[in-house]
Amino acid sequence: MAALIAGLVVFFTGHSVSLVAPSWRMRQIARMGIGPWKLAYSAISIAGFVLIVWGFGMARAQGIVVWQPPVWTRHVAVALTILGFVLIAAGYIPGTAIKTALWHPMTAGVALWALGHLIANGGVADVVLFGAFFVWASIAFVARRRRDRDAGVVYAGGSVARNAIAVAAGIVVSLLFALYLHGPLIGVRPFG
After folding, report:
1. Which residues contact 149 (CB under 8 A, 6 or more apart)?
2. Residue 192 pLDDT more than 80?
3. pTM to 2 decimals?
4. For the chain, does the N or the C end have fewer beta carbons within 10 angstroms?
5. Angle at 108 between CA 71 and CA 60, to 5 degrees
6. 150-158: Cβ within 8 A, 24+ apart
7. pLDDT in tens, 64-105
8. Are 51 and 3 a contacting pair, CB within 8 Å?
9. Taking Cα atoms as reference points, which of 25, 162, 191 lies closest to residue 95?
């Protein structure tokens, strides 16, 4: 469990710098340059992610269960995960009305993905992992929207065609991941 928690701390620390210390971040970018900053940020993120994966595998192997989720929670997890993937896609596709409405759809998508997995998994490792991602993404979503509102950021209106691309991309990628990668990488096949 210690490796999982350490990984979460490292990963979220790197991802939270722009929220909790934006001026420090800007000073570091000015001092280092954007390329070296992105390299350091990526290295920290990858290190945190590797610790999360390794720690989650070890913690999950202990098999400590907090609750037994009912079967219907799997369906909720699938729906929230697909919606989460759609929002994540909308965060990367410019000109979507989804981004205009939510401002930070990727962060909202991560929160929905985590919530779906938190609902459908009752192990201690699951609660720690998905609970941490849900709490972090929820706080980050609110903080980023507040920051943008205070700065007067305006997101341009989006098009129906761009929304359709985001929805299609999110659905296709989520289904491909669930059908072909989730089992080999995670050890669980969402659709049996």
Report:
1. none
2. no
3. 0.91
4. C
5. 45
6. 153/103, 155/99, 155/100, 155/103, 156/95, 156/100, 157/97, 157/100, 158/95, 158/96, 158/97, 158/98, 158/99, 158/100
7. 899 999 999 999 999 999 999 999 999 999 999 999 999 999
8. yes
9. 162
65 phi and psi angles, rounded to 5 deg:
-110, 130
Residue 178: which of 101, 84, 94, 39 has the closest Cα?
A: 84
Radius of gyration in angstroms for the set of CA atoms belonging to the chain, rounded to a whole number: 18
Tokens for 89, please give them: 């896609």
Which residues are registered as beta bridge partners of 123?
65
Q: What is the mean pLDDT of the chain?
A: 93
The SS3 of residue 103 is coil
- Neighbouring CB atoms inside 10 A of 110's CB total 23
Q: Which residues are CB-contacts of 24 (< 8 A; sequence separation ≥ 6)?
A: 17
Residue 65 region by backbone torsions, left for phi larger than 0, else alpha for psi between -120 and 50, else beta: beta
